[in-house]
């Protein structure tokens, strides 16, 4: 699964979060929220081991996700943009005064659904490419997490490998189902085409027998 964890926060106050696997990403994400400098809008990524924490801050609202390094930057930042828009559209001005985890019961389900979509559905990246959005992602510098956390504060990132394997198995099964469906449709189309060709041949043969030239009779 490409995206493993996500949160929405106002400053250091986490309003909603969801993790798709057993990991201590939440603890490290809280440290990042405390250490990320400034209040200006920004997009930034911090790497640790084979994982990257992507952070998008807009109008005082921070959306963060942890993704596998192989996911690149386009998909995670498309996910963050989507989550930011959904959160603001759903809660409006309430995001500026809400208490910690006030939206978690409801919005954690949205985080779960969108993590699943952006991690496993190929249309997520395809639609983003067609729209031509997120071009600013190319300018995002990926820094090592040590750049914001002192070495003494850094925690070892723990990720349940079994959950990742389950995510990979899910993608494989989904691709296998799609392949079987495509083969089935191709076979159906071929069968229909053969039937049509056979019907045309029968029609021509019957027409020839019924309307063909008659032999002259002997006198």
Automatic annotation (TrEMBL):
Main location: membrane
Highest taxon of source: Eukaryota
Gene Ontology terms: biological process: protein transport
Key words of the record: Coiled coil, Membrane, Protein transport, Transmembrane, Transmembrane helix, Transport, Vacuole
Domain (V-SNARE coiled-coil homology) ranges: 126-186
Transmembrane segments: 190-209
Annotated membrane topology: Single-pass type IV membrane protein
Function: Involved in the targeting and/or fusion of transport vesicles to their target membrane.
Family as reported in the entry's similarity comment: Belongs to the synaptobrevin family.
This protein's name: Vesicle-associated membrane protein
